[in-house]
Specification:
- This protein is mainly β and 314 residues long.
- The protein is 3% helix and 21% strand.
- The chain is built from two helices and 18 strands.
- The strands form seven sheets. The chain has a three-stranded mixed β-sheet with strand order 2-1-6, with no helix packed on it. Strands 7-8-9 form a three-stranded antiparallel β-sheet, with no helix packed on it. Strands 12-11-14 form a three-stranded mixed β-sheet, with no helix packed on it.
- β11 and β12 form a beta hairpin.
- The N terminus is likely disordered.
Length: 314
């Protein structure tokens, strides 16, 4: 049975403005702007008319597309319990629904078109309904560039992943540091809420810095910190090592405050630093707690709370 929803108006918290007023060589602490990609927005009500063309899959996908992923309605949205991610939203066939960091929730907008939409098929808004565990007022739609209607949760456009071939798969989690399974609130799925940066005690590496998603943070030995941060990771490097966006110094726990700041890269993107050293995540880490980037190429290392690379010989 189909369920219709009225548009709901939700209030999003505003992100703080990035402030970069103190050089790395000075002793004072830094407070940077926070990019809150998990804010809820005002989703539109679900429409009754929507057409979505069949989606192919790009050459980078080695898995056969599932029937559920190929542009079909989500049916009755459900909430599943995942051992690593907590509660996640799935379609009626049990396939995980994802959100994309480059999209926006206020206003709702999809940035995944062309080849991107082949690997990450947008979920049509038509035919979706809500089961227990999801607030109906959070469910809506957004009109894509091609005129089709895409399902949204808390304003965030929903997608499936081509390489999820069976119910319960979460192969899209953390891909390129930008794709994440969706919690029933529309936020990124996570077992617990974490500050923008915090410290985790790793069994092998000891205390290391992690981002708000619990993903390990890394340093690149070819970077520079003094007299100002300089990143040597550009172009294709950034696909494997996505930058960590700036967070407020107040949104950190256990990380040394000195040199805790953001800076603007030559490509215009903003990046966070610890002790003035640029920090990154690793696309090869698929879930919180993984440290697959440790020691890669003899130049990439996890970061200690004081900003030093973990495991590098002095």
């Amino acid at each position: 049975m189909k369920t219709s929803w009225r548009s709901a108006s939700l209030v999003a918290t505003a992100a703080a403005v990035l402030a970069l007023t103190t050089a790395c060589g000075q002793e004072s602490t830094q407070s940077t702007g926070s990019q809150n990609v998990g804010a809820t927005a005002a989703p539109g009500g679900l429409g009754s008319i929507s057409t979505t063309p069949g989606n192919g899959y790009g050459a980078d996908s080695t898995a056969a597309p599932s029937a559920s992923a190929n542009g079909q309605s989500a049916g009755a949205l459900t909430v599943a319990d995942n051992a690593k991610l907590g509660k996640i939203v799935t379609d009626s066939a049990g396939f995980t629904l994802y959100r994309f960091d480059q999209d926006t929730a206020e206003p709702p907008k999809s940035s995944c078109d062309g080849d991107c939409a082949k690997t990450w098929p947008p979920v049509p808004a038509e035919g979706a309904s809500v089961a227990a565990g999801i607030d109906k007022s959070l469910v809506g739609e957004v009109t894509r560039a091609d005129g089709t209607k895409q399902l949204t949760i808390a304003g965030w456009p929903m997608y499936r992943f081509a390489k999820d071939t069976q119910a319960g798969d979460t192969n899209g989690e953390g891909v390129k540091g930008a794709w994440f399974a969706t919690a029933p609130t529309g936020k990124k799925a996570a077992v617990s809420d974490l500050p923008g940066l915090s410290v985790r005690n790793d069994a092998k590496l000891g205390p290391i810095v992690v981002d708000k998603n619990g993903m390990t943070v890394y340093r690149f030995l070819k970077d520079k910190a003094w007299p100002e941060p300089v990143s040597a990771c550009t172009g294709a490097c950034l696909e494997k090592w996505p930058v960590v966006a700036p967070v407020s110094a107040d949104d950190t726990k256990g990380v040394k405050k000195k040199g805790l700041m953001g800076f603007t890269r030559p490509d215009g993107a903003k990046q966070m630093t610890v002790n003035c050293w640029p920090i990154y995540t690793f696309s090869g880490d698929k879930a919180p707690g993984e440290t697959n980037g440790q020691g890669v190429g003899g130049t990439w290392y996890a970061v200690s709370p004081d900003g030093k690379p973990v495991g590098v010989s002095k």
